[in-house]
Amino acid sequence: MDQTLAAKRSEKDADTRERLLAAALRIFANRGIASATLREITEEAGANVAAVNYYFRSKEELTRTVLETCMRPINDARLKALQSCVDANEGRTPPLESIIEALVRPMVELSVDPNGGRPPVRLLLQVRALPHPLTNTILAEQFDLIHRHFIDKLSAALPDLPAEEVGLRYDFARGAIMQILGDLDPAARDLPDLKLKQVKNDNERIIRHLVDFISAGFRAPSKT
């Protein structure tokens, strides 16, 4: 009996924690982290304010957990895809398009929710637009290693491109991915004449366009 009650308590705790994380992600993505209140989050999650203190201790720790929960699966998948590229080429430098796809595909596939929305993308856009020491630290922890791995492989694939140019184009590539996925979110305003609705729910088409566009940008002649 005691074991049954303990199991039910554990399931309830896990459910409450997940509901708080999901609610925080939605509200952070819609309103920004600074503007969101714990009361809003707990009301959205069907919990009480004390639950945040119990599971996360503070809004700062909740923020950290939300960002890590969003980004770790995507970045783990990126590293795995990049390593698969290397393995498929028997340790040689993979083709440029394969490296770019390893960067693009996990973000496209893992950032979308069942309704076609992209809360992780909206949250990251908010965080980058409104920098804060806490979120800057979290982003560094989540992304710096990823950036180094990809820039190293891109530099090897483009030996004639100066290192600073590789880094700059990598930043442009990241911006293109985030901008397009942000525009494809149903919450975003449709831009006139761009016909983005045609690809909103077609991940493969989005990936193909992004890989082709970014690869062409990397292959453009250097201006330096």
Automatic annotation (TrEMBL):
Pfam families: TetR_C_30 (PF17939), TetR_N (PF00440). Residues 37-56 bind DNA. PROSITE patterns: HTH_TETR_1, HTH_TETR_2. GO terms for molecular function: DNA-binding transcription factor activity; transcription cis-regulatory region binding. Keywords: DNA-binding, Transcription, Transcription regulation. It comes from the Bacteria. Residues 14-74 form the HTH tetR-type domain. The keyword Cell cycle does not apply. The keyword Chloroplast does not apply. SUPFAM superfamilies: Homeodomain-like (SSF46689), Tetracyclin repressor-like, C-terminal domain (SSF48498). InterPro entries: DNA-bd_HTH_TetR-type_CS (IPR023772), Homeodomain-like_sf (IPR009057), HTH-type_TetR-like_transc_reg (IPR050109), HTH_TetR (IPR001647), PsrA_TetR_C (IPR041586), Tet_transcr_reg_TetR-rel_C_sf (IPR036271). This is TetR family transcription factor. The lineage of its organism: Bacteria, Pseudomonadati, Pseudomonadota, Alphaproteobacteria, Hyphomicrobiales.
